[in-house]
Specification:
It is a single chain. The chain has three helices and 14 strands. Strand 13 and strand 14 form a beta hairpin. Strands 5-4-8-11-12-7-6 form a seven-stranded antiparallel sheet. A three-stranded antiparallel sheet has the order 3-13-14, with no helix packed on it. Strands 1-2 form a two-stranded antiparallel ribbon. By secondary structure, the protein is mostly beta strands. The termini are far apart.
Length: about 200
């Protein structure tokens, strides 16, 4: 059965759908419940859509390439394993990035999964960061710049690309993988933090 979706915010109290309030909840009623709002993810609700996506906690990666302008890095949380056989991963650079053209066409790239103590890499490889300037790094057999200290690293050859709206879906075939022990850096709801296992 198809259920119509309202294009306006919905007060779930009118539908008897309640969510129990968690400690520190921001949106609540006198009844001690958190309101959910439904919306159509169009241009008028772009910020709300981004915030909703931000509820999904992700790891944080640093993608590195060798470009005609020297070694480059790109911080991204749009990363996923895709296939075991063949070994494929994907990530998605934003088309609005000033470095997009370099990363969209790179024949080889490396994806570093960041540790929880690597938040300084985010600022360094951000829009106005120093990048690789003054930073010692290694080079893969393909000539790609890589850094020590990542929780895991995947050295890749470009396998394919696909349209992803305002992003590009880049699929890489993993040539080699490096992995170590530690805790990941986590991104959720606009903030970086750590993952702690419950006993």
């Amino acid at each position: 059965m198809n259920v119509p979706i309202s294009p306006r915010p919905v007060d779930v109290r009118s539908q008897s759908r309640y969510v129990q309030q968690t400690s520190g909840g921001d949106t609540s009623t006198d009844e001690g419940t958190v309101l959910e709002q439904g919306f159509i993810p169009d241009t008028g609700n772009a910020r709300a859509f981004r915030d909703a996506l931000g509820q999904f906690a992700t790891g944080v990666t640093l993608v590195t390439i060798a470009s005609e302008n020297g070694p480059m890095g790109f911080v991204a949380n749009s990363f996923s394993g895709l296939s075991l056989d063949p070994p494929l991963i994907l990530w998605s650079p934003a088309r609005s990035s000033s470095r997009f053209a370099h990363f969209a066409t790179a024949a080889h790239f490396s994806v570093h999964i960041l540790r929880d103590d690597a938040k300084d890499w985010i600022a360094r490889f951000g829009r106005h960061g120093a990048g690789f300037d003054g930073l010692q790094h290694l080079v893969t057999p393909e000539g790609n710049p890589v850094l020590d200290g990542a929780l895991a690293r995947f050295d890749c050859a470009l396998h394919d690309t696909h349209d992803g709206g305002d992003h590009l879906i880049v699929v890489g075939r993993v040539l080699r993988c490096h992995s170590s022990r530690g805790a990941p850096l986590v991104f959720s709801q606009g903030s970086y933090g750590s993952f702690h296992q419950q006993s």
